[in-house]
Amino acid sequence: MIGRVLSNRYELLERVGGGGMAFVYRARDVRLNRIVAVKVLSPHFTSDEDFVRKFRREAQAAASLSSPSIVGVFDVGQDGDVHYIVMEFLHGKTLKQVINEKGHLAVPEVLQIGTQIAEALQVAHKHGVIHRDIKPHNIMLTTDGRVKVTDFGIARAVTGSTLTETGTMVGSVHYISPEQARGGIVGELSDIYSLGVVLYELLTGQVPFEGDSMFSIALKHLQEQPRPVRELNPSVPAAVERIVLKAMSKEQASRYQSAGEMAADLKRLLLANDQQVSLQGLVGELEPPTQEPAELEKTRVAPAPNGAEQEEPPPSKRGRRPWWHYLLLGGGLTLLATLVALFIMFRPGAVVEVPNVVGLSLSDAQRILADHKLGFMVGLELYSDEDPNVVLDQDLPEGRKVRAGRVITLTISKGPEYADVPDVVGKSLREARIELQNAGFEIAEPINRVYSDKPPETVVGQNPSGNTRLKRSSQIILTVSQGPEPQPFAMPNLQGLTAMAAQQRLSELQLTLGDISGPTDGVVISQSPAADTQVVPGQTVSLVLGPKQVSALVSYTVPEDSEDNNHRIEILREDLNGLVLLESLRLKRGETVQRNVSGVGFLRIIVKDEGVIVKEEVYP
């Protein structure tokens, strides 16, 4: 790709970063002669038309965001099979690089960084754009001490298409919110949770949850509380810790309800700090300018664990045991007896083959697994188009040989996910798109367009109507206004005009130029619709071009001194159609004949008196 010029404008100079979804190049905008960053989508995603469509739409939405803390998006384009975003080129490091180099940061620095990120999210959320992948890898710290949040377009496009369907979790697993982990609806409060995780890491030098797999880390986001910030870094004030833990609340209702609210708290503590805060020193010396680290933490996808937050039981009191203690003891003995029976039934040593139970009901799957001396557990419950309690997946493939008694983990269907369709009648088409997409619905294409008294691009109808309960991902049919119906008028005569003049005339009348046939340097010799036909604005007009007409006035007077007083005069014309006799007449001495003669392409006029050529003119 190095040296390639995308869309005859962006010359790729060097690759400066890359991850699972895209590669970043330092490039030169040859039209404006400036250095830019060009993010090129990985071929893995360009083959997904739905992803590309949503990627372009969300990237264009991100381009509309204006904030000093959001990386500027200049252009979104396609060159052949290459899809790309053009952004401002940033000199600096990602927060992840800074953390790797310095460990945890000073509290004033964290407050400054957190304030700028929260303000950037406030702008994005106000415009209906949710990032969904806030992490240190997507936050740049420039050499002049500014914070820049990146990757709005890609993060949203991914969550809307290829990587996130209901019931899967997306994002860098260390930073995802509980609702992302369980595959629920992701909104503004999900970004706030992820920002809390970023601040936690900036203050402590480590992420709140670690594990052996993405699955185990995601479960911790759902079920466990992070270690207190001050336990890992005692220098952190309690007020700062409260902000971080509030943002990271498991329940959305307990978090900050807006990024602006969180930014206000961070700024309040920052102003209360007497130190002058500068972030320029955090970047330090740079190697050749980089937009992103070469190795990014990829935005990964895994099945979402379906678990509820659990609380540890309080420690039992010392002293005399209550009556229910013995009941539990009896239940424990019963459980032990059951386990012994299962051990005898599925005693180690026997080897069995795993059957295929995908597509079966849970009860049938349980019976078949028991017939094969295998146990089962439900790992995930996902929304899908299958009926509830149908097995969607199993963790071991059919035919795998395992010990009897092995527990097979099943993923089962919760059935389709339903939601209320937003009422978008009366809103602009752009607003309707954002609202319907955020609710999980698609807009049916093509969109119905009708004339109405409503402003153009206003939604005047939808099917199903608002507040209808409908399966997510269903298509909503919209009817959009084109404005008032245009009034008809008489089609003008375009004959004799050049193609350019005809096109200009059509544009003035709000008519569309359709097919053009004939020589490009000719003039209009035919049109459809014909002149004086009733037409309306927007109607298409086709033209036929032919050689241009040439006209001239020819005049001849019989000499007075002519001997004969009865002269036979002939007028001939030659043009692209050949030589023809136009007229033959008799004149007396001193009489004059005048004629307007026209020809196609060129014109040669010949006048004969008694068969003798007395005049010959050529035009032009």
- SS field, number of helical segments: 16
Derived from helix and strand composition plus strand pairing, the structural class reads alpha+beta
Net shape: elongated
CATH class descriptor name of the largest domain = Mainly Alpha
Mean pLDDT equals: 83
Question: Largest sheet, if any?
Answer: 6 strands, antiparallel
- Domain count: 6
Q: Termini, distance in Å?
A: 56 Å
What's the SSE blueprint?
Elements: E1 5-6, E2 10-18, E3 22-29, E4 34-41, H1 43-46, H2 49-63, E5 73-79, E6 82-88, E7 92-94, H3 95-102, H4 107-126, E8 139-142, E9 147-149, H5 152-160, E10 168-171, H6 178-181, H7 188-204, H8 214-223, H9 229-232, H10 238-247, H11 259-272, H12 280-283, E11 300-303, H13 323-345, E12 351-353, H14 362-371, E13 375-382, E14 391-394, E15 401-403, E16 407-413, E17 418-420, H15 429-438, E18 442-443, E19 448-450, E20 459-463, E21 469-471, E22 475-481, E23 489-490, H16 499-508, E24 512-517, E25 523-528, E26 534-535, E27 540-546, E28 549-557, E29 567-575, E30 578-587, E31 592-600, E32 603-609, E33 612-619
Parallel strand pairs: 13-16, 18-22, 19-22, 24-27
Antiparallel strand pairs: 1-2, 2-3, 3-4, 4-6, 5-6, 7-8, 8-9, 10-11, 12-15, 14-16, 17-21, 20-22, 23-26, 25-27, 28-31, 29-30, 29-32, 32-33
Helix pairs in contact: 2-5, 4-7, 4-11, 7-10, 10-11
